[in-house]
Amino acid sequence: MTIDFSGQTAIVTGAGGGMGRAYALELARRGAAVVVNDYGGGVLGEQNGSSAPAEAVVAEITAAGGQAIANGLAVGTAANARAIVQTALSAFGRIDVLVNNAGTGIAGPFTAHDDEAIERHYATNLIGGHHLMRAAWPHMAAQRHGRILNVSSNGALGVGGNAPYAAAKAGMLGLTLDAAIEGRPLGIVVNAVMPTSYSRLIEQIPDPSTVAWFRDNLPPEKVAAAMAWFLSRDCTETGRILLTGGGRLSSLIFAETGEIFDAEISAERVAQRIGEIGDESLLTPVHNQAEAGARYFRHLPWTAAETPDFGPDVERG
């Protein structure tokens, strides 16, 4: 099997360097026309930028015989999202693939950052990706085909001193899991990735030995190589949280620990049985809200005639 993107158009944000550049080059190498988006700002979200990094990647792609166009808009607003998608439509006539890769860092103590820095961080790392999905979604739905990859981070699991980044990247997981359910009947596949790779963000880590380990073992090209299949027409896997780097690939799931049911539950009874509640030897995977809700039925039986449905009144897969 050869994974091929000929005739398809991809948007990759934050593609002026690092993992974004690797995604853009991998997709172009496999035949996609690529919108290389990068506003050229600093890794910490500074506002001084230009389209020069995006244009440099476009030059690489075209020199190798591929098709690409640069876009220098910053992600984070609905207007810019619509303009980025319009760049793809105007240049190549369609949009098949969206890689929400753009991101910035903002490490430090919990109260260290001013209001503007926090809001700018969420705009780049979460809101911008949501707006881009909203802008691309109708076009993907109309052609009954779309592939979206949202770049999250294992930082969403918590590291300390990184709260805005963790929260934004955790938000990308919820965005992915919900959109995957809604997108399934429309032919839109949505997955998330927690990459482990050398990047400009890694260069901000104070420990030089850690930075060197990333640089020597975890090139961004290995992430792009693994993720290319999940962006292809051949892939129907959706709603996955993938972990990859250096050739390693796995998926992350949510799971419930052991449970108790006590109709007379109280703070005191919880204190007495906290060990049972946190028992990780009895893990049960939970893939969506419906599965989480169904866990209650063994104790609180469903008696209505209709099948239980925990979601809103929209078409879902």
**Structural class by helix and strand composition:** alpha/beta
* CATH evolutionary superfamily of the largest domain: NAD(P)-binding Rossmann-like Domain
- Helical content stands at 25-40%
The backbone outline, from C-alpha atoms, is globular
Note the main sheet.
8 strands, mixed
At the third CATH level, what is the topology name of the largest domain?
Rossmann fold
CATH class of the largest domain: Alpha Beta
In order across it, which strands form the biggest sheet? Answer: 3-2-1-4-5-6-7-8
- Proportion of beta-strand residues: 15-25%
| Total domain modules | 2
Distance linking N and C termini: 28 Å
The residue-averaged pLDDT reads 93
Compute the CA-based radius of gyration.
Answer: 21 Å
Query: Could you spell the SSE succession in H and E letters?
Result: EHEHEHEHEHEHHEEEHEH
Features:
two-stranded antiparallel ribbon; 3-oxoacyl-[acyl-carrier-protein] reductase (NADPH) activity; 2 domains; 3-oxoacyl-[acyl-carrier protein] reductase; 15% strand; 10 strands; Rossmann fold; alpha/beta; Sc_DH/Rdtase_CS; EC 1.1.1.100; 317 residues; NAD(P)-bd_dom_sf
What is this entry, summarized?
The chain is of the alpha/beta class and 317 residues long. The protein has helices spanning 18-29, 52-63, 78-92, 115-142, 163-183, 208-217, 220-227, 267-277, 289-294, and strands spanning 9-12, 33-37, 67-71, 97-100, 146-151, 188-195, 241-245, 248-252, 254-256, 284-286.
Polypeptide structure, described:
With 317 residues, the chain is an alpha/beta fold. The protein is 39% helix and 15% strand. The chain has helices spanning 18-29, 52-63, 78-92, 115-142, 163-183, 208-217, 220-227, 267-277, 289-294; strands at residues 9-12, 33-37, 67-71, 97-100, 146-151, 188-195, 241-245, 248-252, 254-256, 284-286. Strands 3-2-1-4-5-6-7-8 form an eight-stranded mixed β-sheet, with helices on both faces. Strands 9-10 form a two-stranded antiparallel sheet. Strand 5 (146-151), helix 5 and strand 6 form a beta-alpha-beta unit. One of its GO terms (molecular function) is 3-oxoacyl-[acyl-carrier-protein] reductase (NADPH) activity.
